[in-house]
Amino acid sequence: MSTYSSASDQNSIYSSPGPQDYKVGASSTMSNANNSNTTSLPALLQSLRSHTINTLPALRRTERLIASLPPSTPNKSEITKALNEAWIYYVDYHSLLNELRGLTKNYPFSESCLEEAKNGVSKGQGNYCYGVLKRIKDRGLIPPHARALAARPAMWGGRKPSATEMHKLATACESEWTRVLAILLRYWDA
Q1: Cβ distance 114 to 100 under 8 Å?
Q2: pTM of whole model > 0.70?
Q3: How many Cβ atoms are within 10 Å of 60's Cβ, its own excluded?
């Protein structure tokens, strides 16, 4: 048995219930591996507002579901607004950073890189998360942040690293961060 989980952990307050099953009319549902029941649009709206839909894959599934709703769906604009606010919350309250760092275990993703990207993206237009990730890629923000990290004496136990050491670390960070950025951007591929 792992020291990180046990049978009792499944009912812990820290365990995730997994994606919820949202039914929208007769044809649109979001599947739930843990549960076979369905909930209504008001429940989806509440989940967005309470941030229980809080991972990039779950937010993307929800975004696709909402996009598939007919324009005549009651409260569609309210649901779309709640989704936009959920994306902003996801990015601004470290969920995106945590997800990036969870995927970059060898060289944790640079918070300053993410912050720089966030500063140039409008929160009110389009998908904020996609805009931030795309800005990191399009503006080439990873290499300078990888070099800055590699040059920090704290990364080297307080000593000044050689140019070769800095280059190796910067290259390793850049490689891992770029790979993970590409993985996350694939969520928007058609």
Answers
A1: yes
A2: yes
A3: 17
Cα separation, 61 vs 65, whole angstroms: 6
Interacting residues of 176 by C-beta distance below 8 A, sequence separation 6+: 104, 106, 107
Hey, what are 64's tokens?
Answer: 């696709």
Nearest Cα to 87, choosing from 119, 113, 124, 32?
124
d(CA 93, CA 127): 16
Pairwise CA distance, residues 87 & 49, whole Å: 11
Mapping DSSP to helix (H, G, I), strand (E, B) and coil, where does residue 24 land? strand
For 76, half-sphere exposure in the C-beta direction (CA atoms, 13 angstrom radius) is 13
Tell me the per-residue pLDDT of 67-115, one tens digit each, with 9 for 90 and over: 999 989 888 899 999 999 999 999 999 999 999 999 999 999 999 999 9
| Angle subtended at Cα 73 by Cα 35 and Cα 69, rounded to the nearest 5 degrees | 60
Dihedral angle over CA of 120, 121, 122, 125, nearest 10: 150
